[in-house]
Amino acid sequence: MKKITFPTPYTILFVVIFLAAALTYVLPSGKYDTLLYDKQRDLFVIQSIDTTYTVEATQESLERRGIGISLSKFKEQKIKKPISIPNTYKSQEAPGQGILEVIYAPIKGIYDTIEVILFVLFLGGFIGVFNSSGVLNQGVGYLAHRFKGREGILIIVLTTLMALGGTSFGMAEESLAFYPMLVPIFLAAGYDMMVPLAVILVGINVGTLASTVNPFAVIIASDAAGVDWTAGIIIRLVALGLCLVIGILYVIRYAERVRKHPERSLVKGITIPEIYQNHSHIQVTHLSLGAKLQLTIFALTFVIMIIGVSQWEWWFLEMTALFLVSSVVIAFVQKVGEKPFVRHFLTGACDLLGVAFIIGIARGVSIILNEGQISDTLLYYATNMVGGMSPMVFLPVLMLVFAVLSFFIASSSGMAVLTMPIIGALASVVGVEGQSVVNAYLFGMGIMGFVTPTGVILPSLAMVNINYNQWLKFSWPLILIYSVVLTILLWL
Distance (Å, rounded) from C-alpha 244 to C-alpha 167? Predict the structure, then answer.
């Protein structure tokens, strides 16, 4: 019999899109009223199912609608998106999402994520230009020589750096930029493809679930819940430290086992993606001046990207432009002509075309839910489910609710403005502090971030040619450990 293989990321996403479309026929459609601050007119714009009207932008207007958010959060533009108004959910007629909508969804998703897709393609072009000189081979060989016998240090340092990116600015799609740099290093150290994948995904997800200053998660969520973002930070710092140590030990244990017994690799026999195939693992004891210059430009590009996102309010436009400029600079240092430069750039972009498509197709899930108008319905049912629970039960169940919702709503900021005003008001009735709700939101989304196909998981798997089921085999024990640890922290 022919061996059954696990489907590709594209098939997984189409299945999820189909299931989301089926839900639009099972669940009633409906929406909460929303409130948006109009800065130019200094008014609140309230959108309901059948009407739109304005009210004065005062604290009293917020309190009258059960919104426990300070007026200053709106006037200082810390909350820019429409927020849901508690106790305003209304059912309404909305078309079920049929075959045409399912077909259109990934195409609309590609339109909707074009800035991310271009970022990935320009990143591939940058890597293609840099790889053409063979300098990355030399750099990998040099690192293999310097860290021989101490490869575990790489796992500790790089996982920590990824976690810092996650906790400070919610690094997600940006992490795709690091695979071409890190994969050859770990392969040269004798590890398999799972190790660089785990270093990046464990790092960014631990950082995100324990967000300390991440403006796209903890700050927006805290503002929407009506609490100061520094409240609950001690618990998040403890979660960051504990989960980072646990994750590093877990990855090192697997990595060392694979290096000593390659036959025990969970990804034994996979094909190494073409973008990494030309890297030799020969140790290099000395780097030429030209190689050092190119490697410096290469590394400096990523440093500038991180600083730009975390300090200069950069987003995908600026990051994409950075990789384009760096490609040209590296080509200039290599002294290659215009035609070879274009050829190498296009070859590199082509290598990541599949990853770019996955990002766009994944957005199709959210499009189906929004056009079928069942996102708010899911929230409505979730809040009804947890409404009468005791605080001891409420928080871990709430963490689970956020985990399930994040399967359908991958955006941390989108989840915050949709859920926090509703669940924040519910928490005060149950007797739970607002910062605990924020932590439950972070922990739930962080846990689901390890597995949700609508997030960064599938593009990351495509970068290393690892199947979804192989990743699940690796990660499920770690997810279980984290779930227990984070539940205990919610009770403290």
Answer: 11
